[in-house]
Amino acid sequence: MKDRYAFIAIFDYEKDGISIEFPDLPGCLPCADTTEEALHNAKEALGLHLYGMEQDNEKIPVPSELKDIRLEKNQVPALIEVFMPPVRARIKDAFVKKTLSLPAWLAAMADENGVNCSKIFQDTLKNFLGISSSPAIA
C-alpha cells in the first residue's frame, strides 16, 4: 500500500460532456461537463477506486506509460495523481447512520434540553470501548 499513486486518465470530449477512463483500472469511469470538473472528478474517483482495491486486497497495477497510450479523436490524456492518506482518513472518519431506540419520555427530555444524542452516544461508546480517538488507519 503506497501513499501516492499516479495513473493516466483519458478524457473523451463529446457534445454531451466528458467521459473519463483509466485504462489500467477497469470500472473507474467518472464523467464531467467541464475540463476543470473532469480533473476534480478523475482525482476523486481514482482515490476512491484505489481505496476499494486496497480494502479488497486487490493488486494495484503498475501504471501504463504515456507513450503506450493510444488515443482516438476527441481524446486527451491526463496524468492524475492522488495522495492516499487524506482519502483513507476521510472514508474512515465518515459518519454512518445508526438507528437506536429511546423511551419517548427520554427522547422528549433530551430534545427539550437541546441534547446532542449523537455526540453523547459517540462519547459513551468510546468510553465503553476504552478508546480516546479514532483508531489508526489500517
Short description:
This protein is of the alpha+beta class. Helix content is 38%, strand content 20%. It has helices at residues 35-55, 84-92, 104-112, 117-129, and strands spanning 4-14, 17-21, 31-32, 75-83.
Protein architecture, described:
It is a single chain. The chain is α+β, with helices and mostly antiparallel strands and 138 residues long. It is built from 4 helices and 4 strands; from the N terminus they run βββαβααα. It has helices spanning 35-55, 84-92, 104-112, 117-129; strands spanning 4-14, 17-21, 31-32, 75-83. Strands 3-2-1-4 form a 4-stranded antiparallel beta sheet. It starts with a strand and ends in a 9-residue tail after the last helix. The model has no long low-confidence stretch (mean pLDDT 91).
